[in-house]
Write a structure and sequence with these properties.
The complex is a heterodimer of chains A (about 140) and B (about 130). Chain A is mostly beta strands. Chain A contains no helices and 11 strands. In chain A, the strands form 3 sheets. A 4-stranded antiparallel β-sheet of chain A has the order 4-11-6-7, with no helix packed on it. Chain A has a 4-stranded antiparallel β-sheet with strand order 5-10-9-8, with no helix packed on it. In chain A, strands 1-2 form a two-stranded antiparallel ribbon. The two termini of chain A are about 35 Å apart. In chain B, strand 8 and strand 9 form a beta hairpin. With about 130 residues, chain B is mostly beta strands. Chain B contains no helices and 10 strands. Classes of the chains: A mainly beta (about 140), B mainly beta (about 130).
């Protein structure tokens, strides 16, 4: 008989329950294993005209390519959306983008605007890096 | 008294701590379980590529994915736009871009992964299907 460790939700029989939605934890199913989180700011200028890109990165310090997620506060206002995120306002298209390689998690603000005054902004990316190896 | 299984972080009292962020695991809080994971991919040409993963789970569970682009030696999360070229027409002001983008949708039977391909390359897509909490 295969041995396992299971914890079910209250009211569900741990010995007979088979629906994973009713099981809080099961050794049959892997989970996302949390490593580190943090924030990084990308300073950009809104409405400068043409296409421009601003970049920042953080090392993930893992010997493989890890699972990660990011959220972005596009104008340091305290409101976050999930990255990648694209917004279009009248004459401006902005991409808040994230990617990774074997060393770093990268964050990019890409902007196309038809022109304008050029207002200094700061996008704050909050990232979560997990120990799960993507295997690339 | 309710029984529970809990593992707190080092230095945190497992018997008294109430902040869930101080626990490694706590049976009061469901975990984000990975029901299924796998890879698809290979050589791709313009303008796009589509992969279908038949899971037949009977319900559209939450999902996520990453795409590794071999020519660029980097990987992107789902929905990310990786622009490879951008130009602005000096007369019309129209922006033209070429980009990689992985999008996906899931239903009760199939996870479908679509890739916008700007130039021929080779890629690997790692997908995850999670259990609903």
């Amino acid at each position: 008989m295969t041995q396992k460790m299971n914890v079910t939700k209250p009211g569900f029989d741990v010995l007979t329950e088979t629906d994973p939605d009713n099981i809080t934890f099961s050794s049959d199913y892997s989970t996302l294993k949390y490593d580190v989180s943090g924030t990084i700011a990308v300073n950009y200028t809104q409405g400068t005209g043409g296409f421009t890109q601003w970049d920042a990165s953080v090392p993930h310090n893992l010997p493989y390519k890890p699972f990660f997620m990011a959220f972005v506060d596009t104008q340091n206002s305290g409101t976050y959306v999930i990255a990648p995120y694209r917004q279009r306002v009248l004459t401006r298209l902005e991409d808040f983008h994230c990617y990774a390689d074997g060393t770093n998690i990268g964050f990019t603000v890409g902007q196309y605007s038809a022109g304008g005054v050029g207002t200094a902004r700061t996008a704050v990316f909050r990232y979560f890096i997990f120990r799960n190896n993507l295997g690339f | 008294m309710s029984q529970r299984v809990a593992v707190s972080k080092q230095g945190v009292d497992v018997l008294t701590e109430t902040d869930p962020n101080q626990y490694i695991f706590h049976s009061d809080y469901n975990t984000f379980k990975i029901l299924r994971e796998g890879t698809v991919g290979g050589a791709v040409g313009t303008p796009s590529a589509t992969y279908e993963v038949a899971h037949n789970m009977g319900i559209a569970e939450p999902f996520y994915a990453f795409m590794y682009i071999e020519g660029a030696a980097l990987y992107e999360p789902l929905n990310s736009v990786f622009i490879t070229n951008a130009s602005v027409n000096g007369t019309t002001g129209v922006l033209t871009t070429t980009f990689w983008q992985l999008t996906a949708f899931n239903n009760a039977g199939t996870l479908t992964l679509n890739v916008n391909v700007p130039n021929p390359d080779s890629l690997i897509i790692k997908y995850f299907i999670f259990a609903r909490p």
